[in-house]
Every structure is written in structure tokens, then in C-alpha cells.
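ingest -> fold -> write
write: protein_1
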Amino acid sequence: MSTTKASLVISRVWERFAPHFTKVGKTENRVIGVPDSGGHLPLGRHELVLLPAHFMHSEGNFRFYDPVSRILFTGDLGVSMTSGAEARIPVTDLAAHIPRMEGFHRRYMVSNKILRLWVHMARQLDIAMLVPQHGAPIMGKKAISDFLDWIENLMCGIDLFDDRAYQIPTAHIDPVSRQMRPALHAVNA
């Protein structure tokens, strides 16, 4: 916001934090707060559709859909752990690609309920390509449909937690080696 006159389009949830990341006055009349329900944002002669994607993987989250190109920019949804060279090649066979996405989605997506709600909304769009912010795009009706089916049924986030994740820790973190050491237990002599 310091070197450009561009506007910042951001969730109303995060809008009040934007001024803290730049010099005083740099955000005046430049922040466009998006309501939780999303909206249509003019862009040139067309518009982008800002789709709610809250808790995927943070609150106040949106996905941007371009109805002209039919590209859905999915942010962290669809992220895959690939090399830069691999990320240039669109995925057309999802089954082989799932191992590159699964760990991230299980950890960072909040719950299956959120994914199901989002998929129900997304299926109403005519999507030619899904473009995540990291990794390879997903292209073609079958691969996109397979992706939506996969995340619609993915157990993730809080679905995977139980009381074992909320125990008082016993391991020690060594600040020098940055390794975990198991707790020492007294031995009866």
C-alpha cells in the first residue's frame, strides 16, 4: 500500500487490521471491505464473483471466480506440494494428484462440514479451471468434479481431533538443537 495507489479488497473481518501494515493514512479510501456473504466486484468491463470460503483455512476467507474465463481462484483449496516445474502443468487426472494435496488439506481445512457447504455452492458454477495459490491448477470437467467429490468427503481439521490432542505435554523442546526430547521419568531403585 506504500508504493501503489491500488485498492485493497479484504474481508470485513480483517479490514480493521490493514492500517497496521503500512504507514498512517496509506489505507484512507483504499480498503474495500467484503461482507461475509461475498459479492460481485467490478473489474474493467466485467466482474469477479467473491465467494465465501470462511474457515478454509481461515475466517474471513474468499475465493474469486471469473465468469468470463470460468477460472475459480481457490486460494489454499486445491494446494499441492509440487516443484515449480510440476506446478506449471495442469492436473487432468486427480487420483494421481491427491497424495500431493491430502496432508495439507487434512491439516489446514477446518472441517468436513465447511467443505461440504462450499462444494454445494461451487457446483452451481461453470468452472473450466481451479487455480490454487500454490501448486498445479486443476483443469477439465472430470478432474474438477473429482476434486469437488474428494473434498466433499474429506475428513479434516477438527474432524480428526479428539482428547488425545489436548493433553498437558510431557516432551521438552531443546532450543539449541530444536529437537524434542521425551520427558525423563524417575526410575525406582
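write: protein_2
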Amino acid sequence: MAQALSGIGWDLRLHGGNAISQPRNLPCWHPAFWLATWFGCGLLPKAPGTWGSLAAIPFAWGLANWGGTPALLTAAAACAFIGWWAASVYVRKSGRDDPQEVVIDEVAGQWLVLAAVPPEPLPYLIGFMAFRLLDIWKPWPASWADQHLGGGLGVMADDILAALYGAFLLALASLWWSLP
């Protein structure tokens, strides 16, 4: 059935117990579809933002081990700008303000937070948990961005702002534990 509906521009999928529709006029082979959903992670059932954040971790670890914090920060910035484009296309084609299957914002935010800690299991676990908590809680100005900015910018901005809080808190914690 999903294949038949795909031929007329709609692809229905079960997402977290709810049927979601792929945006009209955005075929599943379009780069914006794959980037916005972070290669389909956002289509996984239950808590797509958590899946997106989890999927970001192996990339962050590889980038940090390859080029250190500068590589991870550069990748986070590039992901934020590419995500702005991909989320803009996805939002425009779906007609929804912040589709839950768009998780590239979680990827960029997670990378930003993880840039504040060394690529080791415990700091990455703490970074993951801190970002998920701040992304859900959305302290100001992330909450303001979530409520007042629209389109792809709105999708990306609240996560980047929440990530800045997370990176700052993790950097302070790292500094605290490194003091004699």
C-alpha cells in the first residue's frame, strides 16, 4: 500500500505508533529527505530525536579521533547549515512546522555538545544525556526559538541553542575535574 501511495506523492509509514506521511513532492531519493531524517534514523519508531542523537555519536567519535575538536566543530557547523537547507525543504514539502522525523538538528546539536569533551565512553554518555535533557527542556533562548522561528531555521535553531548550553556545561565540568 505504501508503495502505491508513493506513486501519487505520499508514502505512509508507521512512526512511533502513528502514521506519518512523507512530504508530497519530496521523493525518498531526494538528498533533503535523507539528510533531514539522517539517513532514515528519524523514521525509527519511538523517540526519533533520541535515535538521531544516538546515530550522531559514532560520527562524532570518528571525527574527534581524526581531527580533534576543530574537526568536530567544523562538522557541527556544516551540519547546521546543510540541515537548515534540508529541514527547510522538508518543512515546506510537508506543510508541518517541525516534523518529528527531521533529526538532522539533533545530529548538529549532539556534535556541538560532544566537541566539549574527549572522545571517551563516559564523557560521550554524559554528553548524550545532557543534550537530550536540554533539547527536551529547551531553556531560554532555545524555547523562544522553538516557538517563534519557523521553517528550517526554526527546526535547527532551538537544538543548536540547547547544544550551546550543553557544551558550556560540559566544558565547565571538564575544567572542574581537571583542577588539582
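write: annotation protein_2
Strands lie at 12-15, 18-21.
The chain has seven helices and two strands.
pipeline exit 0
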